[in-house]
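pls design
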């Protein structure tokens, strides 16, 4: 294993892409009513990992979110809302959220 230290801009881009992942997961559950729990998230994750978003530069990503009608502030707010809600459900609301905190068995908060 290697130690990887992201630049501030790379970290910000990663967080914004995480916000898009959250929005995509929420829509995926709406569009696919049979999707539930960890198994459902695994199906989503396979499609998510193949999505073009992972190869986008900051400029490409900015255009992508603008085409969807979002701003960076919108995505930051959505991501904060998601992790705050997840932490309240898990009883860890006073603890800063990290993707590793997500409970494995919760349909609304998949492991990521």
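designed seq:
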């Amino acid at each position: 294993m290697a130690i990887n230290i992201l630049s501030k801009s790379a970290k910000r881009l990663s967080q914004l892409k995480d916000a898009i992942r959250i929005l995509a997961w929420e829509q995926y559950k709406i569009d696919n009513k049979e999707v539930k729990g960890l198994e459902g998230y695994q199906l989503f994750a396979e499609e998510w990992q193949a999505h073009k978003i992972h190869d986008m530069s900051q400029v490409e990503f900015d255009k992508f979110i603008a085409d969807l009608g979002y701003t960076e502030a919108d995505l930051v707010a959505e991501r904060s809302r998601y992790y705050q809600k997840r932490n309240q459900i898990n009883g860890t609301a006073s603890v800063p959220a990290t993707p590793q905190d997500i409970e494995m068995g919760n349909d609304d908060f998949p492991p990521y």
